[in-house]
Design goal:
The longest helix has 32 residues. The protein is globular. The protein is built from 28 helices and 27 strands. The protein starts with 8 loop residues before the first strand and ends in a 6-residue tail after the last strand. By secondary structure, it is of the alpha+beta class. The chain has four domains: 248 residues, no CATH class; 105 residues, Glucose Oxidase, domain 1; 229 residues, no CATH class; 112 residues, Glucose Oxidase, domain 1, CATH 3.50.30.10. The protein has an eight-stranded mixed β-sheet.
């Protein structure tokens, strides 16, 4: 078949959680092997890993008409083409099933390199060989769905393809990527590289390792490549690239079609797709977005699943689902097969459901008509406050700083809310328990702790070096800014290990652990020094970050204030001439929410925060005792935000000797106020927080982790700090001077 002389335009087709090996196999299926078996191929099949999921891109025209035109031409020559194709595919499925079962139960560690290498070659060969047949079986019916005449003409062929696809999904489908990762993991095990990178090995790298001809230098180089691939890679033209998708396409004079849909632009509109299991009932329920198999834990009984595509790994949650809605898919998709077999109302191929809908949206699902009606799109489901441990609070915090913060803390499944009441951060209590245990492992091991300190110092030196380079350069380069930004994320990551979520359990364990006790001996100075660097890095008015932002502001003619409502990755996109519109900036100025990888802003964020915090306004000021004692005195509130960080100096000057210092937290910049205090009370912190450490040094009563002291107590209130019981009592309110 002749290729049309037109410029190729690539579009995102599917979203998966695939290994590099499976992406390579898929590329071979669509290109070389398809050409070999059917004299047609895609020009290119591209796979991009963004750190969370694999996005497959294909040319819009080839994807839409390519397989359809191929099959129609084949059927015209041979009316049994589809029947014979399905028969052959099922024979290969049975053979592969037997082979895969043997591999799944086989201990790879017991195999010689030569034997394991041979089995890996067989695995790749069998997958590549059956691939083009399965692709026709999968995509041929989907391309007929919008053409009623063709669909009725090829009804028998379509039904046969649906049947074969269902058997593949049940028999072999779930094992395909598991085996790819199993081979990769075993290969890495044999050269002492962490098994978590098994998903990111290429076919050739596995073969190279199993050949046994790998030098120590090559192992070290491979380890570096894998660490980079975990964050990002582009597989195109059958090779791994570290360039952007845009740059790869631009070099070949190809185009990229992006479909970015703002949630608010769909307000009042129905979401439409294809129905694959009809029910006479119109269902109403709550949406839960699942982007990949790692997120299926979010699903509870009676939820409506919204996902790019359903895969066999989702099987544990099927019995809980009220309905299924997908971006992708056709009548041979796994979602359609599951829906028909289990009787779950299902709408597939909406293309936009995961972009428009958010967790907690109330919707009506009409599976007979293939329509999703949004009943209440006013909230973004944040979960239950009681499931979270509150971490930190600021009076104000920029969207930009939050994006740096969340680049690390999303790994802890953190939540950040920001509205008129302030900026709050939380982590799930389940994760909090884990960080406490991780803290014991870190501070209880001399080598780990020394390595941690050295790594932190190395990252700080890198920050200064990259800042100096940017500051002394005439022209801004995207790569320089990106490297500098990464060091900021690194500093946040390393400093997080000094916070109470890591240190509290270790503090109580030091009486039985000499290593922890020894490491904690200089911890106060260590934390204070690093906090000063954090301030210098991105908190102070004259910080490195603000200096860099000033240069970016001049370079792109954007006000510095507006840049603070960009995410740090959005700032990098300025180099690609992509600016945020005023509406987005205004919404973020009003309110925003970060939860793991999701972000919402404006009115939706406001309503979501209101629901999240509803009925959780405790009237008691109760915390954890850091230093025992009782004191009665007037309170002095320290409450300042990121945009007025340097205002702390004025508040320190206003502090009178003998007052009770009440703050979100203490830090080196308000040390003079701490020296004047008769007691210290903080919203956040634990036994190794700055407040707890300096209170023990100064021998003044201290209560930390109250969560609400700055809300309940006002400057001038007469309070009793009962640190024996961990309670602050308000004895007399300050007289209103108005």
């Amino acid at each position: 078949m002749k290729k049309k002389s037109r410029k190729l335009c690539f579009v995102p087709i599917i979203f998966r959680d695939w290994s590099v090996i499976l992406c390579e196999i898929s590329h071979l299926m669509f290109t070389k092997e398809f050409k070999k078996q059917f004299q047609w191929r895609l020009t290119d099949a591209i796979y991009l890993w963004d750190g969370q999921k694999t996005i497959a891109y294909r040319d819009k025209g080839e994807q839409k008409r390519g397989i359809l035109e191929l099959v129609v031409s084949k059927v015209k020559k041979d009316k049994f083409f589809i029947a014979d194709l399905n028969k052959k595919a099922l024979e290969e499925v049975q053979e592969i099933d037997k082979f895969f079962n043997e591999l799944m139960i086989k201990k790879f560690s017991s195999l010689s390199k030569k034997n394991l290498s041979r089995k890996f070659d067989d695995y790749v060969a069998k997958m590549v060989t059956i691939g083009p047949k399965l692709l026709i079986i999968q995509f041929f019916p989907m391309q007929f769905e919008k053409d009623g005449n063709l669909e009725s003409k090829f009804r028998k062929e379509i039904d046969l393809c649906v049947e074969t696809r269902g058997k593949w999904d049940k028999i072999v489908g779930p094992a395909t990527d598991k085996l790819a990762i199993k081979f990769g993991t075993e290969a890495l095990k044999r050269i002492s590289i962490e098994k978590k990178f098994g998903k990111f090995l290429t076919i050739e790298e596995v073969k190279k390792v199993l050949s046994g001809k790998v030098s120590r230098g090559e192992v070290n180089n491979l380890n570096k490549k894998l660490q980079s691939r975990v964050k990002y890679y582009l597989l195109a033209g059958g090779k791994i690239w570290d360039v952007s998708l845009e740059d790869y396409l631009k070099k070949r004079d190809w185009e990229l079609e992006k479909q970015v849909i703002r949630r608010d632009s769909q307000k009042g509109k129905d979401i439409k797709g294809l129905t694959c299991f009809k029910t006479k009932k119109i269902l109403k329920g709550k949406i839960i977005i699942v982007q990949n198999k790692r997120e299926i834990r979010k699903i509870n009984e009676g939820d409506i699943l919204v996902t790019p595509a359903v895969t066999p790994e989702y099987s544990p949650i099927y019995s809980n689902l009220l309905a299924i809605i997908t971006d992708e898919g056709g009548i041979t998709s796994h979602a359609a097969i599951v829906a028909r077999e289990l009787g779950i109302p299902c709408i597939i191929g909406t293309k936009i459901a995961t972009q428009v809908l958010k967790d907690g949206d109330l919707v009506e699902v009409d599976a007979d008509e293939g329509v999703v009606r949004i009943l209440n799109q006013g909230t973004f489901y944040l979960g239950t406050l009681s499931d979270y441990q509150r971490m930190f609070k600021w009076k104000k915090q920029s969207f930009l700083i939050t994006s740096f913060f969340m680049e690390h803390y999303k790994l802890l499944k953190a939540l950040v809310t920001n509205n008129h009441e302030g900026w709050y951060s939380y982590i799930p209590k389940k994760i909090y328990k884990k960080t406490l245990e991780d803290g014991i492992l870190l501070y209880g091991n001399k080598n780990k702790f020394n390595k941690y300190k050295n790594d932190f110092d190395k990252n700080k030196r890198s920050t200064e070096k990259k800042y100096i380079k940017i500051n002394s350069s005439e022209h801004l380069l995207k790569t320089d800014i990106e490297k500098f930004f990464k060091t900021i994320v690194g500093n946040i990551k390393y400093y997080s290990k000094t916070e109470f979520i890591y240190t509290d359990k270790a503090y109580y364990a030091q009486s039985k652990n000499k290593t922890i006790k020894e490491n904690f001996r200089t911890f106060g100075d260590f934390k204070a020094q690093n906090r000063e660097f954090i301030n210098k890095n991105f908190l102070e008015k004259d910080s490195f970050l603000n200096s860099v932002l000033n240069k970016i502001s001049r370079e792109f003619n954007i006000k510095n204030k507006e840049l603070n409502f960009y995410g740090y990755k959005e700032i990098l996109e300025l180099f690609n001439e992509k600016k945020l519109n005023k509406t987005i900036i205004a919404d973020r100025e009003r309110s925003f929410v970060f939860r793991e990888n999701d972000t919402v802003d404006g009115q939706i964020a406001e309503k979501s925060i209101e629901i999240f915090l509803k009925n959780n306004k405790s009237e008691d000021v109760v915390g954890e005792t850091a230093v025992k004692g009782k004191i009665k005195a007037k309170a002095r509130i320290f409450y300042y935000g990121i945009d007025e960080f340097d205002a702390s100096k004025k508040i320190v000057e206003s502090m009178r000797d003998g007052e009770v210092l009440v703050a979100e937290t203490t830090s080196p910049e308000i040390m003079l106020a701490c020296n004047k205090a008769s007691a210290i009370v903080t919203n956040q912190g634990g036994m190794m927080s700055h407040a707890a450490i300096i209170s023990r040094e100064m021998k003044v009563p201290c209560i930390v982790g109250t969560g609400n002291a700055t809300e309940k107590i006002k400057t001038g209130d007469l309070v009793e700090v009962d640190a024996d019981e961990g309670v602050v009592r308000i004895i007399k309110r300050r007289k209103n001077t108005n």
